[in-house]
Amino acid sequence: MAKTLFEKIWATHLVAETPSGAALIAIDRVFLHERTGAAALKRMAEMGRKVLDPARVFAVMDHIVDTRPGRGDGTLMQGGEGFITETRAATKAAGITLFDVNDKDQGIVHVISPEQGIVLPGVTLVAPDSHTCTQGAFGALAWGIGSSEAEHAMATGTLRLDTPRTMRVTYEGALPDGVTAKDMVLALIAAHGAGGGAGQVVEFAGEAVSALDMEARMTLCNMATEFSAMTGLIAPDAKTFEYLAGRPYAPTDFNEHYWSDLKSDEGAEFDKEVTIDASKLAPMVSWGTSPEHTIPVTGNVPQGPEKVHKYIGLDAGAPLAGTPVDVAFIGSCTNSRISDLRRAARILNGRRIASNIQKAMVVPGSLSVKRQAEAEGLDKVFTDAGFEWRMSGCSLCFYAGGEGFPEGSRTISSTNRNFEGRQGPGIRTHIASPETVAASAIAGAIADHRDYAPLKNKEEEPA
């Protein structure tokens, strides 16, 4: 019987089924972060439960750490230092691998797990973070869980789940120049709604998906949770194997025969099929307070709920391009990898941000990305253009009570969420690709990055 990629992974991890249809699934990897990790480990210790296999559990300091240069355990978030020190103590007591604040491999969990080869094709991986679906780009079944579920997974190596439904999203044709994986997923959510994938495992397929590199595939899967999906995933291929080769936690001897079979069989049936013509996509920018409030950068703001228009400060019918912005932000688990920084830097090289931009910053997704970018001189491109160059972390993608942007600011951001207060009290966030963020910072307003070709020399840009 023809099986989907999801069904193959599910079958190899199925421990037991209940009469009601729930399943007990084996969990291969658990990743914790300092916002909830210490609490989960402390509760387990108090109940006399140990981590079943510490070698399969990892933790990182990424959610609450400051991104300011020279950072330590102290944070601008009140009480943040306690999260950090308690996580350090709890992971040491449990024998868990920790990527600490200034560890050379520290970074955002969904960036460093692939960098380290912790996620692999065919594994099940969970973390108390909704964007764990990012790692489905490797043909893994990876999803976000709650803190109590993390305790169960660490103590038993399993989780109880209802069998999810399946959806395949096929992007036919080739992407036009200047259109990215971020635009692909925003177009999907805009067309089918933020609840369009509710409760489903979404497999991304098609010519345009196969053409993406691994970092772009991670961006595509990252926002499956904004589609309300349980997770997103992509069948592994030669690009996947090449990316993982030589990674610290990846096997030295790949089982390519098994990995190569991790794809949906011809004739496999999905509960829902969606097809998108990739050749007709354009750079996308959100206009409201949900990722489904997204249109092409060249479009006009549509009519939406009155509350949304009031918060975002845009009237229906107004052109989105040309809307002044106060802040430009490049970072997050969606778009902070080296390829993201390279594309933004190509636009910024030889140019300066507009005088009305109050704050512009780049937060690399990991310290490895930061070092690589500095070796390529990208940091100087950003700082010469007027951006701050930061340490890696999640802060400023989501507001945790520490550092923030000026209240009421309008930001153009490479992050994944734009709901009210996501980046701070009263902040109005427009999500877009790193290229669009770079072009908008130069223009001082939402701009089409296709109008900003890389300069050959500084004299090319008109005053």
From TrEMBL:
GO terms for molecular function: 3-isopropylmalate dehydratase activity; 4 iron, 4 sulfur cluster binding; metal ion binding. Its EC number is 4.2.1.33. Residues 7-444 form the Aconitase/3-isopropylmalate dehydratase large subunit alpha/beta/alpha domain. Pathway: Amino-acid biosynthesis; L-leucine biosynthesis; L-leucine from 3-methyl-2-oxobutanoate: step 2/4. Its cofactor is [4Fe-4S] cluster. Keywords: 4Fe-4S, Amino-acid biosynthesis, Branched-chain amino acid biosynthesis, Iron, Iron-sulfur, Leucine biosynthesis, Lyase, Metal-binding. It catalyses: (2R,3S)-3-isopropylmalate = (2S)-2-isopropylmalate. Signal peptide: none annotated. GO terms for biological process: L-leucine biosynthetic process. Pfam families: Aconitase (PF00330). SUPFAM superfamilies: Aconitase iron-sulfur domain (SSF53732). Heterodimer of LeuC and LeuD. Catalyzes the isomerization between 2-isopropylmalate and 3-isopropylmalate, via the formation of 2-isopropylmaleate. This is 3-isopropylmalate dehydratase. It comes from Altererythrobacter lutimaris.
